[in-house]
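Continuing the batch. This is chain 6 of the set; chains 1 through 5 are on the previous pages. Same settings as before, nothing changed between runs. Recording input and output for traceability.
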Amino acid sequence: MQRNPYLEDRDKKNNASANLPARLNILLGIALTLMIALIVQLAFLTIKQGAYYQSEVNRNDETIEKGNTPRGMFYDATGRVIVGNKAQAAVTFTRGTSVTSSTMRGIATKLSKFMTIDTKRLSERSKVDFYLANKSNNEKITKIITKKYKNDKLSLTTEQINMYEVRYVQKHDLAKNVDQNAAMIFQRMSGAYTLSTTFIKESDVTNTELAEIGERLSEFPGIKLGTSWSRQYPEGNEFKTLVGTVTNEATGLPEDRLHTLLAQGYSQNEPVGNSSLEKDYESILKGSASQTLVTTGSGGQIKSSQIKYNGQAGDNVKLTINARFQSAVQKILEDNLPGGDVEGAYATVINPYTGGIYAMAGVDRNHETGQKTADPLGNINHAIVMGSVIKPAVLATGFQKGVISQNNTVLNDQAIKIQGTPAITSYWNQAGTPTPIDAETALERSSNTYFVQLGMKIGGQTYSPGSALGLRPDAFQTLRNGLGQFGLGTKTGVDIDGETAGYRGATTGEAQGKYLYETFGQYDSYTTLQLARYVSVIANGGYLVAPHIVGALTQGQPNSDKQKTVWTATPKVQGQVKLDAGEWDTIENGMNRVANGSDAWNTGGADMHKLIPKVHAKTGTAETVTNGNQTYTESMVAYTPGQPFAIAMAIPGMNNYLDGTNGKISAKIIDAYWQYVEAKPNSK
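Output for chain 6:
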């Protein structure tokens, strides 16, 4: 019998219809089971955990918001304010816990209509971020990026999408027309981390800006009208170079310390010490920030704030500098500086017993334009070939090595003729005629050839006319060690960054002959502060004392103008030069004769001779080349016996030889000391 296809198809449909209720029942059973499970879960959450979730909805977060406080001030040794603070109106922004870039963009855009800020430091990246903070712009660029990479079958993370968005905006220069004033405000706001306060504008806020913004504070969440402090210099702006500078909202954090400062909690445009003492004592000057307890709701909105700690202004730094004396020394240098090729002048006045620096003044001079710039730190970072001022240290080394004795210091001043080196003579004995002189006369006349012969003896050779140089291999090091006892050629350890140790020339090969010039200060270079420490050793009887400029740290007291001293500097002895009393007498008598002697070839000069009380001194002259011309450095070290006073000064690049400028300037500085620092003693 043939099969009936119709009947077979009908049977299949009937069988399928018969199975439908069974499948439907299974699906309904699954749905019913899931519904029951959902009801049970809802009941559990409502009954058992309802209170917990209700508390989460009503939860308040408490966070500490930090504010800013005035920086500590700088005082001079007499209590005068050198660097103070000037309060001024400011506009600040405190970033809430849920503030987004889009929110900040909206605030910045509105705020820019009522306030103008400097846009010089607006970065290209901030312009891009400002552009993308616009929701419409962001969605459009995101769509382009995701579509492009979706077609490439790549899956991107949120960070990757943001990176490609920035690149896209930069490539197509889409941010070129953004409102730069608004973008700069946005950049400053972005520099704040959660619940920190940063300055939007910390200076030059106009009365109109204050009024316009004050009327609309409710429209600018996180914006406040506050106070900032800028540095002021009651004793003159020249102290800015010595003490250093502080960044402001325009300059931002220093690039070389940016990441470190951000890690320490600074915001992008928070003031911070940028150089010299302001930088070195940042942690002390910064003080402690005010603390406000901020309560925020679950949505991030600020519900309340309560001041928990008003903050503490930074501790103050009291210097050993005498402000009036410092200004006087600076003016003396500027007013008496010669012209021509002169590169500047530097002077340090120090207490030889404590190391405290009374004044450290300097002038840098552009020999092409004649322009003078205050350069007090040139005393620590400008190394100079100083000349004969180092001769007392060479004499001391000779005593210590036993090549000369205090009972017989006589040597001939004569022309020094060593094979392979130019002849060396003293300025007062150009003919080189052998002339017996003792050590004191050699200091008074500044005999170069006396100290060349003394130096050769230290190096293991007695001078013989026309002989070859035959020094011991360690001669250079031996002499430098002798000078190093007095601090020459080593850093002083002064409490200011940027000090140099000077320059030490080569000692081998053709440079071996330079040893002869080292003996009278015509080779290695030193800083003026090194000279001040060096002459202090002679003044205090042989102790190498570290110089310092910070004398104490003080702390302001609540409801009082008085300062509490929290730290005081004490003398730091770095070494000792050991000589017999008679050997010290020889050095001191020679320096006394320099400043007060009557020898026909006396080097002290009339200005130094007139000083009362009398000083001991040593002059120096070094031959140099400046601007292609033969020039000279004139230098001077001096001290007043028994008094807490010593001075070192140098003038590099002079065109005239032995014109007495060093004596004239030194005498004026010494007179100023007795006028401004302490009363002149009666003794002569």
